[in-house]
Design a protein that fits this description.
The chain is an alpha+beta fold and 111 residues long. The protein has a single domain, classed as Alpha-Beta Plaits, CATH 3.30.70.20. The protein is 18% helix and 11% strand. The protein has 3 helices and 4 strands, in the order E-H-E-E-E-H-H. The chain has a two-stranded antiparallel sheet. A hairpin with a 4-residue loop joins strand 2 and strand 3. The longest helix is centred in the middle third of the chain and has 11 residues.
Length: 111
């Protein structure tokens, strides 16, 4: 089992999860984070840290496409190891459904 970042992260990009990850398996895009499935040690400490419940185990219903997306983007996005501020309009996006069309495949800008 591994954990996966899902749609809830798009356009919010809270990084509370990054701060607690013992193996630094998070990767940052312009408006979303992903987890590298080959690096995740399945400890689960990140899941309760996400304020929008965007992190789920890969055994949760409906997450298979997100697991594929996480694996793909983790190969091209930079690793993130420190907490940063969420996106400026995160509160407006939190809890919204149907955000996949808003996903940017661009990597995060260097911090």
């Amino acid at each position: 089992m591994t954990y996966v970042v899902t749609e809830g992260c798009i356009a919010c990009k809270y990084t509370d999860c990054v701060e607690v990850c013992p193996v630094d398996c998070f990767y940052a895009g312009e408006n979303m984070l992903v987890i590298h499935p080959d690096e995740c040690i399945d400890c689960g400490v990140c899941e309760p840290e996400c304020p929008v419940d965007a992190i789920l185990p890969d055994t949760a219903p409906g997450v298979a496409p997100w697991l594929t997306l996480n694996a793909e983007l983790a190969e091209v996005w930079p690793n993130i190891r420190e907490r940063i501020a969420p996106l400026p309009d995160h509160e407006a996006w939190a809890g919204q459904q149907g955000k996949l069309a808003s996903l940017s495949r661009n990597p995060a800008a260097p911090q």
